[in-house]
Write a structure and sequence with these properties.
Length: 350
């Protein structure tokens, strides 16, 4: 795959940034936007529904309520921060102990393992021991010891998760393994919320949580939704706007959750091969796909894989990606080939 490359030398800005992909809309003539934001899954989840002047606002509000309830339910299944979640119960399993799990958990874990194969292990939900280690490093402002990284690495590996499709069970082949679906669950929840909105008769809406968005239908009869991608080093600057309809878009980056120690930035995305935070010079990665859990997963994987991840995106039909690389004091934007022919894109210099 050939890649378009743009290089512009600029100064670096160490700024803490907020949400990655933001919907831009409002004051739409002939339409009303019904909007609500709630704090769920550790982030602000926003739902916007576009309805006509004579459409029933109460119906839209009831659909939004149901969609939020669904996201809350999904959080209850997959959150590692809730001791009563299904994932937390799975994470108590000892080596070779079998647990029967729900079809929903089974299905998302199975898909996540398929994503690990697709990305050659760059995306791996068994990274939890490493994620915990790096959380502690952030809290203590102290890098983990090599020995601790080695020990945590020994407890990871998607190939050591055994799923039995007939019995619907899961088993870890190593002691001390645990799952973290933080790289895919928000996208999954977004997809579920979109399904609820659709089933409730909503045709035009946006669901967004953190860097994850799904654009259902259009903003107006004539216009798609416009999604703005944030500059990875300047909080209030947008570097790209894309018009989307019936598509998921997800941005991962090193600028929301990270810490800096001895002038080095450590992001919340871990390279499962090294045990260290991803350091492949990608500082922002955006994926457009039909399926929001796929875009969530691949955006995370591209942070680890860099250009190889873009190549994977480019090799799959209907998948596109945009990555910002940082090399010395330069930002380089790379995209999958032909993206500008498929989408209406407005780009600002970085
Ligand atoms: P995202 O913000 O979607 O890129 O997901 C990042 C989150 O996914 C982290 O906070 C971890 O919980 C988890 N994670 C970190 N590294 C990986 C990885 N290599 N593969 C899968 N999940 C990861
Ligand atoms: Mg992700």
């Amino acid at each position: 795959m050939s890649l378009r490359e743009k290089t512009i030398a600029i100064l670096l800005f160490a700024v803490v940034l907020s949400s990655a992909a933001l919907p831009s809309c409002c004051n739409v003539r002939g339409r009303r936007i019904i909007e609500e934001t709630r704090f769920l899954m550790g982030t602000d989840v926003r739902i916007k529904v576009s309805i006509g002047e004579i459409d029933d606002e109460l119906q839209a509000r009831s659909a939004i309520e149901k969609a939020f309830k669904e996201i809350e339910r999904v959080e209850g299944v997959f959150s590692v921060y809730r001791p009563d979640s299904e994932i937390s119960k799975i994470n108590l399993l000892r080596k070779n102990e079998r647990l029967r799990i729900s079809p929903e958990a089974f299905s998302l874990i199975k898909r996540s393992i398929e994503y690990s194969r697709l990305t050659d292990g760059a995306f791996d939900i068994t990274v939890k021991p490493l994620v915990d280690l790096w959380h502690a490093a952030k809290d203590n402002n102290k890098l983990p010891a090599d020995e601790d990284i080695k020990n945590a690495l020994a407890r990871t590996g998607y190939e050591d998760v055994a799923l039995d499709g007939a019995a619907h069970t899961i088993l870890f082949r190593k002691e001390g393994m645990a799952l973290d679906l933080g790289g895919v669950a928000k996208g999954y929840a977004t997809g579920r919320a979109i399904k609820i909105l659709r089933d409730s008769g909503i045709k035009d809406a946006i669901v967004g949580s953190g860097g994850n968005l799904y654009c259902l239908g259009k903003k107006t009869d004539a216009e798609s939704w416009t999604v703005a991608i944030q500059h990875p080093r300047k909080k209030d600057k947008v570097f790209m706007e894309i018009k989307l309809s019936d598509k998921a878009i997800d941005t991962s980056g090193d600028y929301e959750k990270y810490f800096i120690l001895e002038n080095k930035r450590y992001s919340h995305i871990i390279n499962p091969k090294t045990g260290y935070p991803a350091a492949g010079h990608v500082i922002s990665s955006t994926v457009i796909a039909g399926d929001p859990d796929f875009s969530d997963m691949l955006a995370t994987a591209i942070m680890v894989l860099g250009q190889k991840g873009l190549n994977i995106a480019g090799s799959i039909r209907d998948i596109d990606a945009i990555a910002v690389f940082e090399r010395n004091d330069r930002f380089i934007v790379m995209t999958t080939e032909g993206i500008t022919g498929r989408y209406d894109i407005k780009e600002e210099k970085l």
